[in-house]
């Protein structure tokens, strides 16, 4: 598409303030960001820097105090509950750090749940591709309790992908996994971007995880402070060290 | 440990509130009924204290004698009044069922009807003249102020009064108005007519100068006991003396006895409600503790012992139990007070209130039930929680379903023999077989409860197909299946109430249909029934001669009177004595002879239906002791007939009526030739019966309709009384849902994040709620219809019923009502779930 809106999602001067008075916390201070379509974007930063908040605001899970968020051609800011429900059905997919699945449903039912909720028929060919990519063909009839943590996250990935949303948001998807399972998930996310053109935004504080992305955005104290394209793990680590130093310096 | 527990308690306001509400409802209903009972009792016994205020000793005819009821002569009364220590003497000339008529020709409606004879001021000071004079002639009466008000007459006006021994109502002139001590219009809303003494004696006893008994007041310094001793020494034979206190107690007990039946029923329903409450409280604690098992495991991991953890939960339960019981007791006292004012407004407004009575028994019951149930309910889950290895519990939710095998095997091991035992009790005839049947049914019911988690899966699936639409509905079905035990326990609470309603509805429907079918077999077209303001004893109803006039009406082919008294016993059992011309009855009711002969009976003969004969082991030719009023005689069984739903029990001949207190027939049955105008005949019969208070006349369809109304009313009363149990059950569903939602907060967030709308969440919870309630209703209907059918079969064995007819309309309505309750129970939980913030729900710990 050569339309001027090539961004899958956009934040324009987004502010997020929690609480008021003494307890006031400014989590985001005028963040502007474009998420490129068909790209894997990582958001990095130290703990408490506002990564999750930014993702929640981008995904329409949280409201912004000021500024605007757009996903595809939908202005998210100001949407009511039914508008948000429609957005979630049609435009976004989620992968959370844990507890992604409904314990009462099998892996297969979990994967197809967003489509069932939206009342859409799954595209069989695409569905087969997805489950083969995540390597779950022999686990489809299992309940989440019968799956390992890594398998559960793979089901969550397959679910997010099955509906082919505009953007998939993943908040530390590997945070609870051992490094091998984590690598599986990251490889899988990478492949969905490269091979199927899926847009993914991933929050992480792990430099190695961020190295799978096409682009890394660095957040500190609620502001975008830096970014890298096609990063290597070393480059990311290097950048973090520099940022930490500057954050410390700022603090002193 | 204790501090940690208490803090935990206060942090869970929702769960705390739910647990307490559960206890308050259960304890409240029980306390309300106890308080109401005690309060009414005190109020009624207060009534008799007033009545016997100045009575030191009362002389009455002895309980049982053979032959004539003895009377005190005026001379004997004079002698007794001369006994040393007697102050005032009041001869008793009184009768019940003395009914005054209003000016419009209808009889007065009042709480009981009394007629007395008096010659002037009451020597014991209970009654005194308010205006006018005492009756001086046989054509004058004095009325209590209440009677005058009810009849709408004033002094000097004419009032018609019915006296059973006289028959046709006679006109009297009102000579005066009397009042009771303290200036009251009546004691308890009753009607009182005072005749001139000699006239009353002639009417009531057939001769002047005789009395039924007497009351005496004592000189100061003479105790009731002392005076009783002195009077007893001077008594003529056939009489006995009692102290005023003894009489008061006897009378209160007698009245209380009349309320016993209602009390037992109310108490039964209260205990049903409490029993249902057990499930509610148990489930609440079970879920609460299950949800806290992570926290408890953490405590254990930090070194708390098994005992400390269990102790903490028990302590929590104890506090909740005490608070709940206290609030429940308070609510019960409030409801009891309200109930008293509502009830007495209807039946005893005139009786002075004696204040609210909260007996120690009421308080103890409230606390014992409230605390015990809570402790039991908390103990099981507490033990379970403390047995979970700390790490397993901390690893978080999603424990795999526990096997239902043991539970189901136990359930089947109870249910199957239970049904067998019930059937044995039904078909085998030995003494106490009815209890065997009851025992079997209880076993089967417990078995069914234990089996219910196993049944939950298939039933919920099938019902789910009907009520769950869309993905949200399917999720609801899954949710109700994820913990079959929880679903089952919640549903059982509803099941209990529905079981009782279902059984009652089945029996009522079978009764209605059987009666209709049976009545249709006879030529009886019109029925005449005596009044219900007093128990039948021959003093209420109509004169048999009135039926001669009915028989003379065009088209009437027969009119037979039946006499009835319930002041009787047969072979020591409290069985009513019924008398009629057995030969005529045999023809009219097509009675089938089983043994002996069904003919017009002479003195000392009776017939019986085969069931009564069998259960009391009578054979034709046997001699049986029969008491009517105070007279006991031997009767010989000369015939046995086959019982029908319309006619059953022992039947006597006309000579037996001589022993009745009065000679009035209580029922009459009229047959007509084909083509007769029944409505016109009913109207003519009504005219003939107009002078007999409370006698109603109707064609069979009218009476069937009335019977049906009575049955329907009984069913409605049962349903309303079970309403509290149902309310508790609905609260149980609400409770389970609320707690489940707390447990599934994160899942709610998740499904919302992946696109489920608010409406979808509401639907999901609504479906779960409906499934639980419908499952409970279906269990209850299965059990209730089963029990109902068994009871009906037992009644068929006893020839009270001829057929079993299932009340399909009612059953469908109960399922519909269960659905409605399910929806109601879901409102609050669904609303709470729908307003959850998606992000907060996902992050919920
Ligand atoms: N619901 C909330 N209420 C108040 N403060 C919050 C809330 N959520 C996040 N914060 C604060 O906002 C800042 C950013 O948080 P977050 O986005 O979670 O950071 P990160 O994901 O980078 O660790 C932190 O200081 C955090 O304490
Ligand atoms: Mg975070």
DSSP, total strands of chain B? 25
Tell me the structural class of chain B. Answer: alpha+beta
How many structural domains are formed by the residues of chain B?
3
Query: Strand content of the residues of chain B, in percent?
Result: 15-25%
Largest interface: A-B, 27 and 27 residues
The distinct ligands, each listed once, are: adenosine-5'-diphosphate, magnesium ion
Mean pLDDT of chain A: 87
Biggest sheet of chain A, in brief? 6 strands, mixed
CATH class category of chain A: Alpha Beta
Q: How helix-rich are the residues of chain B, as a percent range?
A: 55-70%
Number of domains of chain A: 1
Roughly how many Å apart are the termini of chain A?
48 Å
Protein model, in words:
The complex is a heterodimer of chains A (252) and B (845). Chain A has 252 residues and is of the alpha/beta class. Chain A has a single domain (4-251), classed as P-loop containing nucleotide triphosphate hydrolases (Rossmann fold, 3-Layer(aba) Sandwich), CATH 3.40.50. In chain A, 38% of the residues lie in helices and 25% in strands. Chain A has a six-stranded mixed sheet, with helices on both faces. Chain A is globular and about 50 Å long. Chain B is α+β, with helices and mostly antiparallel strands and 845 residues long. Chain B folds into three domains: 55-249, no CATH class; 409-522 and 702-845, no CATH class; 523-701, no CATH class. Chain B has 24 helices and 25 strands. In chain B, the strands form four sheets. In chain B, strands 15, 16, 17, 18, 19, 20, 21, 22, 23, 24 and 25 form an eleven-stranded mixed sheet that branches. In chain B, a hairpin with a 7-residue loop joins strand 9 (158-162) and strand 10 (170-180). In chain B, helix 1 (2-11) crosses helix 8 and helix 7 (244-301) runs antiparallel to helix 14. The longest helix of chain B is centred in the N-terminal third of the chain and has 58 residues, at 244-301. Chain B starts with a helix and ends with a helix. The chains are: A alpha/beta (252), B alpha+beta (845). At the A-B interface, helix 2 and helix 3 of A face helix 13, helix 21 and helix 24 of B. The structure holds adenosine-5'-diphosphate and magnesium ion. The site of magnesium ion has 2 residues of chain A, from helix 1.
């Amino acid at each position: 598409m050569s339309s001027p809106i090539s961004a899958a999602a956009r934040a324009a001067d987004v502010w997020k303030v929690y609480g008021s008075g003494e307890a006031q916390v400014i989590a985001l201070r005028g963040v502007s960001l474009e998420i490129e379509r068909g790209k894997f974007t990582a958001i990095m930063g130290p703990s408490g820097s506002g990564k999750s908040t930014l993702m929640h605001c981008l995904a329409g899970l949280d409201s912004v105090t000021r500024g605007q968020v757009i996903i595809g051609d939908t202005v998210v800011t100001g949407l009511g509950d039914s508008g948000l429900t429609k957005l979630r059905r049609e435009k976004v997919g989620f992968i959370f750090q844990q507890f992604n699945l409904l314990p009462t449903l099998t892996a297969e039912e979990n994967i197809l749940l967003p489509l069932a909720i939206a009342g859409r028929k799954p595209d069989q060919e695409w569905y087969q591709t997805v489950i083969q990519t995540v390597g779950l063909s022999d686990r489809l009839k299992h309940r989440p309790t019968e799956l390992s943590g890594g398998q559960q996250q793979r089901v969550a990935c397959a679910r997010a992908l099955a509906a082919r949303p505009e953007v998939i948001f993943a908040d530390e998807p590997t945070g609870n996994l051992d490094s091998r399972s984590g690598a599986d998930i990251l490889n899988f996310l990478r492949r969905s971007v490269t091979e199927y053109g899926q847009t993914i935004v991933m929050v992480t504080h792990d430099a190695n995880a961020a190295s799978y992305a096409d682009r890394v955005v660095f957040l500190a104290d609620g502001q975008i402070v830096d970014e890298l394209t096609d990063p290597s793990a070393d480059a990311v680590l290097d950048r973090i060290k520099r940022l930490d130093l500057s954050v410390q310096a700022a603090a002193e | 440990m204790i501090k940690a527990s208490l803090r935990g308690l206060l942090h869970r306001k929702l769960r705390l509130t739910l647990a307490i509400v559960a206890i308050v409802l259960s304890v409240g209903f029980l306390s309300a009924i106890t308080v109401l009972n005690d309060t009414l009792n005190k109020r009624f016994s207060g009534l008799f204290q007033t009545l016997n205020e100045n009575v030191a000793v009362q002389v009455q005819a002895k309980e049982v004698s053979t032959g004539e009821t003895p009377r005190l002569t005026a001379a004997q009364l004079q002698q007794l009044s001369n006994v040393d220590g007697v102050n005032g003497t009041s001869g008793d000339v009184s009768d019940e069922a003395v009914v005054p008529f209003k000016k419009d020709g209808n009889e007065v409606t009042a709480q009981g009807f009394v007629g007395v004879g008096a010659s002037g001021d009451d020597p014991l000071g209970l009654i005194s003249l308010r205006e006018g004079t005492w009756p001086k002639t046989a054509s004058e009466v004095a009325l209590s102020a209440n009677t005058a008000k009810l009849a709408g007459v004033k002094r000097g006006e004419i009032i018609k009064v019915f006296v059973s021994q006289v028959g046709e109502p006679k006109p009297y002139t009102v000579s005066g108005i009397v009042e009771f001590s303290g200036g009251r219009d009546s004691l308890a809303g009753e009607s009182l007519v005072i005749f001139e003494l000699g006239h009353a004696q002639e009417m009531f006893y057939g001769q002047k100068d005789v009395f039924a008994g007497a009351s005496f007041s004592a000189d100061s310094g003479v105790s009731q006991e002392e005076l009783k001793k002195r009077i007893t020494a001077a008594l003529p034979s056939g009489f006995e003396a009692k102290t005023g206190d003894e009489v008061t107690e006897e009378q209160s007990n007698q009245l209380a006895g009349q309320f016993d039946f209602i009390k037992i029923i109310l108490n039964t329903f209260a205990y049903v409600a409490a029993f249902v409450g057990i499930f509610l409280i148990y489930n609440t604690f079970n879920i609460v503790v299950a949800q806290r098992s992570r926290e408890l495991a953490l405590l254990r991991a930090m070194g708390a012992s098994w005992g400390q953890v269990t102790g903490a939960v028990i302590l929590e339960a104890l506090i909740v139990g005490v608070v709940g019981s206290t609030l429940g007791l308070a609510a019960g006292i409030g409801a009891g007070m309200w109930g008293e004012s509502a009830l007495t407004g209807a039946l005893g407004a005139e009786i002075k209130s004696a204040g609210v009575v909260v007996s120690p028994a009421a308080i103890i019951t409230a606390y014992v039930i409230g605390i015990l149930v809570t402790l039991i309910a908390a103990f099981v889950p507490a033990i379970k929680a403390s047995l979970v290895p700390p790490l397993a519990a901390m690893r978080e939710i999603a424990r795999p379903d526990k096997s239902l095998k043991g539970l189901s095997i136990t359930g089947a091991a109870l249910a199957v023999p239970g049904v067998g035992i019930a059937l044995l009790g039904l078909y085998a005839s030995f003494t106490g077989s009815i209890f065997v049947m009851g025992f079997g049914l209880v076993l089967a019911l417990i078995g069914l409860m234990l089996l219910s988690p196993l049944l939950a899966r298939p039933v919920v699936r099938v019902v789910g197909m009907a009520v769950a639409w869309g993905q949200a509905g399917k999720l609801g079905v899954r949710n109700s299946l994820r913990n079959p035990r929880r679903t089952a326990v919640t549903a059982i609470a509803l099941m209990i109430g529905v079981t009782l309603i279902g059984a009652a509805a089945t029996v009522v429907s079978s009764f209605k249909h059987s009666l209709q079918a049976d009545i249709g077999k006879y030529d009886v077209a019109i029925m005449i029934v005596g009044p219900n303001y007093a128990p039948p004893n021959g003093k209420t109803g109509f004169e048999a001669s009135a039926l001669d006039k009915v028989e003379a009406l065009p088209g009437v082919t027969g009119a037979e009177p039946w006499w009835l008294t319930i002041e009787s016993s047969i072979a020591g059992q409290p069985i009513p004595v019924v008398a009629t011309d057995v030969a005529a009855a045999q023809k009219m009711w097509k009675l089938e002879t089983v043994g002996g002969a069904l003919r017009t009976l002479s003195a000392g003969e009776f017939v019986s239906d085969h069931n009564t004969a069998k259960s009391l082991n009578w054979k034709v030719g046997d001699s049986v002791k029969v008491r009517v009023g105070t007279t006991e005689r031997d009767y010989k069984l000369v015939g046995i007939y086959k019982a029908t739903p319309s006619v059953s029990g022992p039947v006597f001949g006309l000579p037996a009526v001589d022993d009745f207190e009065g000679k009035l027939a209580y029922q009459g049955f009229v047959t007509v030739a084909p083509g007769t105008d029944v409505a016109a005949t009913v109207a003519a019969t009504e005219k003939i019966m107009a002078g007999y208070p409370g006698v109603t006349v109707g064609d069979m369809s009218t009476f069937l309709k009335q019977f049906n109304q009575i049955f329907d009313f009984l069913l409605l009363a049962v349903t309303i009384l079970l309403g509290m149990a149902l309310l508790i059950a609905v609260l149980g569903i609400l409770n389970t849902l609320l707690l489940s939602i707390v447990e599934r907060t994160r899942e709610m967030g998740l499904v919302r994040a992946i696109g489920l709308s608010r409406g979808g969440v509401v639907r999901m919870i609504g479906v779960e709620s409906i499934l639980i309630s419908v499952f409970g209703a279906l269990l209850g209907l299965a059990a209730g219809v089963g029990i109902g059918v068994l009871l009906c079969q037992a009644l068929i064995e006893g020839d009270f019923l001829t057929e079993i007819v299932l009340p399909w309309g009612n059953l469908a309505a109960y399922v519909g009502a269960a659905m409605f309750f399910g929806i109601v129970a879901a409102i609050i939980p669904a609303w709470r779930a729908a307003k959850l913030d998606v992000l907060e729900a996902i992050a919920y710990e």
